[in-house]
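Hello forum,

I keep getting stuck at the same step: I have a sequence, I want structure tokens, and every attempt I make locally crashes halfway through. Rather than fight my setup again tonight, could one of you with a working pipeline run this one for me? It's a single chain of 255 residues.
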Amino acid sequence: MKVRILGCSGGIGGRHERTTSMLVDDDILIDAGTGAADLSLAELAAIDHVFITHSHLDHIAALPLMIDSVADLRDRPLIVYATEATLAILRKHIFNWAIWPDFSEIPSRERAVMRYQPIEIGKTTHLGQRKITALPAEHTVPAVGYQLDSGAASFVFTGDTTVNDRFWPVVNAIANLRYLVIETAFADRDRALAALSRHLCPTLLAGELGKLERTPEIYVTHLKPGQSEVTMSEIEVRSGALGPQMLRKGMVFEF
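Reply #2:
Ran it on my machine without issues. Output:
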């Protein structure tokens, strides 16, 4: 499998600040933040599967426009995977004809451009030899992370989350874990805000990484624009022995 980071910032502002989206091979998106909007029309039209971690705007912003843009270029529905709770939010608040057309009914329910596919934590979706499993996350709305397993190795993305004791036993059981992408949205000066918004800060991240029993490469995502340098400096102090690196737009992981 090949993962290209299209966006990994906690906000926008500048050429490199794009919100969360990852292109897997040529046909899968993990989240559809603003990073997905940098893909060409042909690249967007090639995507058949979109796995959403949760319903916050920075993770779904490009999804409505993407579906509208490629609708007449495809001969099969785009499948949107998420938990039932997240799909319910998308139906009610995004694809509701008030904010955006309901593409699960266009041009008809029988021949819709978009199809919803519910997933459950712990259950695996098989796409050829590729396996994608939803992992538990703790956020302000229903949320998941994902394990991408090629068979040879696994790439794990926490999604947006805070302290999460359900997550680590699952991750520690992944024998072929090679990459761990974990969020840290705030610097320690905003620890109270991190707790309120159910994100991590460097001190909380250090506590979470202390539960990790494997030795993957660790990458930090979802840094707030304007805070990335100070946040990564704090991570170096608190978790430097584990070697966390800053995830960057354009990075490619093959496994």
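The longest strand covers residues 130-136. If your local run keeps crashing, start a new thread with the error log.
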